[in-house]
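#struct-queue
[09:14] JT: dropping the first one here, sequence first, then the structure tokens:
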Amino acid sequence: MIVRRRLIALAALAPFAAPAGAQPPAFPARPVTIIIGSSPGSATDGLARAIGLEVTKETGQSVIVDNRPGAFGGIAAQAVARAQPDGYTLFMTTNTTQAANPHLYRRLAYDPVKDFAPVALLTKGWLVLVTHPQVQARNVAELVALAKEKPGKLNYGSGSSSAQVATELFQQLTQTRLNYVPYKANPPAVVDLMAGQTDLMIVDFAVTLPQIKAGKLRALGVSSPKRSPLLPDVPAIAETLPGYELGYWNALYAPAGTPAPVVQRLNDLMRRALASAGVRHSIEQTGMEVTPSSPEELGRFQREEYERWGRIIRTAGIQPE
């Protein structure tokens, strides 16, 4: 396996080692696939498609977004970990796979550090606490009172570790007990919430903001320290529960062993895409902010987040499955 990866890496480097006087073919020279661990409609899906359009404009090569939800992003992570390290199969993901899953599962089919080459940090974002309109709570305090009145009776859906851990942290700070209903991804969990199959979620803006504005979901609070400009009338959860704060992030990775020139080229493409007005607007409309980085900065950031999410999960009392 090691020999095979070295041969592939050398082959990928070939375009950058053309004879003197020759013009090496630009990377990418063919379509690029971005695999994500969430379904269409999620924040990561929207980000991947917006960035893909910009990369296509820049390079003339199409970008294919391959949705593989399930196992909190583990299915997608495993697929990229096993892909050829040539820069043509990439992984756009979140803290779920790279920082939280190792603390939520006893066994993973991938290693979040050893199996990937960091390319770039892309965005950071916050979550919103939403309920079905029929839930008899119009603010965080009333929801806490209702949960204490009916311990274990309120159901919350989650299709990501961010959504699960955010709700577990909420329970810890309020000393309440909610019933966890797992989903493969957040969009189908939101669909069930709107249908009244569950009662509440703490989830990203991308999959809830249209439903909030249409009155199909009720927003009680945001997970950021301050109110969001997208929902200025919705208080921060911390206004009722001091110390409550939890966000998420998106980043791009390549398989481990991808040649450094390819990684740097991908990083350059990400920076240019994030600087475009269309991508920035798309990001800001989902409650996120642009946070580009170098590959080395992403590697350091991921290690810090790995430790941080581990502390949160242990403190919340979540036992690895």
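[09:21] JT: and here's the second one, same format:
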Amino acid sequence: MEQQLKNDLLLRAARCSPVERVPVWMMRQAGRSDPQYQKIRQDINIPLERLFRTCPTPMSDTDAEWAVKISLLPKRIGVDAIIVYKDILTPLSPMGAHFRFSPGPVLDEPIRTQAQVNALKPVDNPDVQLRYTGCVIQRLRKELAAELPLIGFGGAPLTLAFFLIAGQSPMKRSEGISEKASIVFDMMENSPTLLHLLLDKLTHMTINYLNYQISQGVQIVQLFESIADVLSQQMYETFALPYHQRIFAELNTDTPSILFAKEFPYVNLMQQSGADVLSVGKCVDLGTVKTKFGDTLAVQGNVDNDILRDGTFDDITNAVNTCIEKGGKTGHILNLSHGLHRDTPFENVKHFVRIAKALQEN
């Protein structure tokens, strides 16, 4: 029998059950802006492709130990959940698409032909193909000792397709689409059958990957559609939503699920995915969403991640207070509009968590 969680606020919020306060965590909370993370990376001098396991090298117990240690770093600042330290590109390696980081992700041979799509291997034996991820999850559950819930995640098929086709991150640092990623839009227009073939393979992998994480011990999963902000409504309906629906329909129903669609304004389409929680961006008014769906659908977000990077403590306090008021106490998980910026002051990160709790003290 599984041990009772000491802090199950996140899981209750995801199910729209009563909570004492709104739980808080942050996307990209493990790493990036944390000085302890930067020190660990400098001290161990291990390439990201080994820590993320986006490379074909044999599994290392030492690498897994570091991934566990990094995952747990945010616990010291009081977050209500831990997310596994890995990358959305991790499960592409056993398919034969090995990304290295230089410093961003690089795929030596982008996937753009039917022969290349056909050559991608299925992930039907995750116990072997993704053993590193399972090992990290098991060790995290042991270290957490039922203190906090553990979040697993995967990239949505269209987001992964953008990376595979571009052969690199599809987004520029200025947040615009890269020139190589624009090839995906050409494929949508001129070779939709090929793109759907790729998306179908990625969907099959993602279902197996997320269910494997659940079997190894994660207690909630999040699907990242990180390129949703560059999609039109029609593109989303054609190339994203059907695959979201397939994924959520096939997941273990005992485990809550979150859909994150970066700065996508059509929440009604997101709701059709079948996810238990919708993680919405700053382009969405949280109060309007809660009024429309009530307590039948949980929401996550939507504090502007730019405010955490650029704002004062007062700015952050005001943003958190507004979000809590609009989100209500039931079915709301406090989070950001997107992940933490790499150059976010860590004092601001700590203040975000601290004030989220302080504002709800009675």
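[09:30] RK: nice, looked through the second one.
[09:31] RK: The chain has a mean pLDDT of 95.
[09:31] JT: good to know. The two ends are 35 Å apart (CA to CA).
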